[in-house]
Amino acid sequence: MYYDPIKKTLGEVFNRTPGLRRLFYHLLDLLLLRTWHVHRELRQWARGRTQEPLNILDAGAGYGQYSYWLSGLGRAWHILAVDVKEEQVADSNRFFRQIGRPNVQFAVQDLVLYQEPNSFDLALSVDVMEHIVEDVEVFRNIHASLKDGGMLLISTPSDQGGSDVHDDAETSFIEEHVRDGYNIHEIQQKLRTAGFERIEARYSYGEPGQVSWRLSMKYPILMLGKSRLFFVLLPFYYAVVFPFCLVLNWLDARSAHDSGTGLIVKAWK
Fold first, then answer.
1. Of 5, 12, 27, 168, which is the most exposed, with the fewest CB atoms less than 10 Å away?
2. What CATH code would you report for 3-160+167-268?
C-alpha cells in the first residue's frame, strides 16, 4: 500500500490552522510508538543541555513533529529540518513562523547529497532510512556534518517483522519502503563503514508494540486505503482503541526486548 497519499490527505486536513496542526502533533506523539522511544532517547541526550545554543539536524523531517517537540524542549537550540518534498517544507516554514519559533528552519535537501561539515551536535533520522537505497552515503554525510562528539539517533524498521514482513514471500506493507528492515548487526556495520565508532542499537516494537501498531496504524491505514470516507469513522474507531494503545505503548517503551519489529540506534562521531 502507498502511504504518501494518505499522509498528504492528513496534512491537508490538519494544516488548515496552527491550532489544528499542534493538535495533530500531539496526537502523533501519543499514537506513534516510535515517538515514545525517540522522545525517551532525546530526553536522555538533552539532560543539562537545554540552555546551550546547540545545532540540530532533523534529517527527513516529514510533518515536522520532532522539530516542533525539540524546539519546545530547548529554546536556545537551532534546528534545521530537511526533506525532499517542497510543498511540505514550505508549509512547515509557514507554520513555524506563525507560532513564533524562528529557531526552526526547513529546507529542501536530498540526504544522499546534503553535507554541512562539522555543524551539528545532534542528527535525528526517524523512519527515513527504509526509504533510501544509498543508506551508507547518507550515513557518511551525516557523520561529516556532525561535530566531534555529536550523536545520530535513528528509528527504523528491523528485519524481525518490520514493515509487516515476516518471511521471504511477503513484501512491505508500505510500498514506499526500499528495504523491509535492517538486521541489527547490518546497520551497525554500515554506520562503522560511514565512520562512526561508538554505536548502540536496541529493539523497539516488542510484543506490546506490535499489537499497538496494528490497532493504531495498520488497520486505520487499510481502511483509508479502501476509501477516504473512513476519515469520518476514524474518531469513533480511535475512541475505542486509543486507551488500549496508550497502555501498550507505555509497556513497550519501558521494556527491554530480545526482538522487535523496530530498531533504535545511536551512533557518535
1. 168
2. 3.40.50.150
Query: Alpha-carbon distance 262 to 157, whole Å?
Result: 4
pLDDT of 65-113, one tens digit each?
999 999 999 999 999 999 999 988 999 999 999 999 999 999 999 999 9
The pLDDT, as a whole number, for residue 11 is 63
How is residue 259 written as a grid cell? 526482538
Residue 245 class from Cβ within 10 Å (0-12 exposed, 13-18 middle, 19+ buried)?
Answer: buried
Q: What are the sequence ranges of the domains in the chain?
A: 3-160+167-268
Average pLDDT of the chain to the nearest whole number? 89
For residue 205, count other CB atoms closer than 10 A to its CB.
27
Mean pLDDT, to the nearest integer, of 180-206? 96
